[in-house]
Design brief:
The chain is an alpha+beta fold. It is built from 10 helices and 15 strands.
Length: about 300
Amino acid sequence: MRYTVSRLLGVIVEQRRILVKSGDKFCAPVVPTPILSSAATAWEGFLFEHHSMPPVVEFPPSMSFPGHLIGITLCDEPPITYWRDRGVERSARLLNGQVGLISSQELIAARQAGASMIHNILIPEATMERVCAELPKRGPIELIPCPNLDDDALRHLILAMGADLKEGCPTGRIFGESIANTIAAYSAQKYASSSCYFQEFRDGLSRHCLRKVLDYIQSNLHRDLGVTEIAHVALISPYYFGKLFKRSTGHTLHQYVLDQRIKKAQGYLASTNMALAEIAAAVGLANQSHFTTAFKKKMCCTPGFYRASVRG
């Protein structure tokens, strides 16, 4: 098992599970293994887990998370969560689709009554700092804890991430990582304990910078490119890079890279006898199934039909 360390909190995060610090120990906040997890993907900078919560859950005492936990509750019958705050026990009913937020704040005691499904995304402090690197100097970002927010934007983003993970991330890691950066920036701007305002740019990337980025993408289409990797070429934080790239090209980074992969695949289909699995690998898609799905969605036909049609 590999581990990463959050120096600000002194908490260890096992890459295969979201862990919490409870006293002097590190443990999973929910005992059952997740139904769905990002551990097996190439996503970097965050962890995603989908859990089926039993009717009664006792969370570890005095627990704190290594970063920022953002999750949504999915349920037929709303469960009730209980926690102790400054010696006073509090409770909240979690309605279907509501969002919960917490940063490194310690929960002295917490439990939940009522079965539900949850999508959790853990954004480590290092990722939040990277996303917010362009902001004016300030202390570490802390989200105001709340178990039951009604926020359609966060709900949509987290569900989209879960759906992409369930499908096996068919178009690569950029989509999931872009969503994670957006979740981090949105949460910091709307729910941080101190004000965080991201500057809006009217102009996009400089001509030289954009050319450098596009050349890098073309040279590395065979790899599963990541958002942070491409943003590093432009020397811009990942979140701002995504916004500037879209302003410069009219496309999101994910859509542009996918379009370039499909164009490259069209060339292979028209001029070579490469097997579809070989073409998938050559354009940076995980396997033949993912390649066929992405190609058909873009071109409205299968790769085999396209090859036959262009060869007459």
